[in-house]
TrEMBL record:
This is Methylaspartate mutase subunit S. Belongs to the methylamine corrinoid protein family. NCBIfam families: MthylAspMutase, PRK02261.1. SUPFAM superfamilies: Cobalamin (vitamin B12)-binding domain. It is an enzyme of class 5 (isomerase). The keyword Hydrolase does not apply. Residues 128-148 are annotated as: Disordered. Keywords: Cobalamin, Cobalt, Isomerase, Metal-binding. Residues 2-135 form the B12-binding domain. It comes from Halosimplex aquaticum. It comes from the Archaea.
Amino acid sequence: MGQTVILGVIGSDAHVVGITILEQALTAAGFDVENLGVQTSKAEFVSAAETEDAGAVLVSSLYGHAEQDCRGLHERLADADCDAVTYIGGNLAVGQDDWAETESLFRELGFDRVFDAETDPESVVAALERDLDQRTTEPETDRVSVNS
Ligand code: B12
């Protein structure tokens, strides 16, 4: 597993500002970022993660349809033998009233960390540095599950 970070906005979502800022912050922090842009399909995320031997897959969703768009993504990553850490962030549910419920839903879908729309780029960089460092220094059998 490498240190390449795959980044994109899933589904039909066209909100580009968040991932542009994240790409800049991650690149400045030394990560090799592959930005797939907006309106990215699950297949495109998986293909990029496989091709790049990605360390992390970062999924952005702002328009309120993240749950439908992300269902099945982790099964496809597993089928491709991809063990990248996965994050999702943005405006993940319409209204996003109950954050604990939203976070739990996306954790159940398989994401290692779930971030809300107030997330600043520095905290994403810090989380990735911790997670990727942990994964490269721990034995494969010792994978940890972490909370955001
Ligand atoms: C600008 C904007 C648009 C522009 C987008 C232009 C563009 N090409 O980017 C336009 C006008 C096109 C648009 C369209 C729509 N929009 Co709009 N839009 C916004 C708005 C005002 C700002 C978004 C933005 O750029 N924020 C600034 C960036 C820096 O912040 P951010 O995107 O949140 O990203 C940060 C964090 O969320 C986080 N983050 C984001 N992704 C990820 C991923 C990971 C892995 C991590 C760790 C962190 C992370 O880090 C980022 C940096 O700090 C928001 C309201 C708002 N204030 O957020 C609504 C908003 C997102 N839009 C909304 C809606 C409903 C729509 C439409 C469906 C409206 C419609 N009926 O047509 C369409 C969808 C079109 C489409 N196919 O995507 C809703 C979504 C509602 C929901 N989720 O419940 C919002 C919240 C407005 C609202 N209050 O109702 N929109």
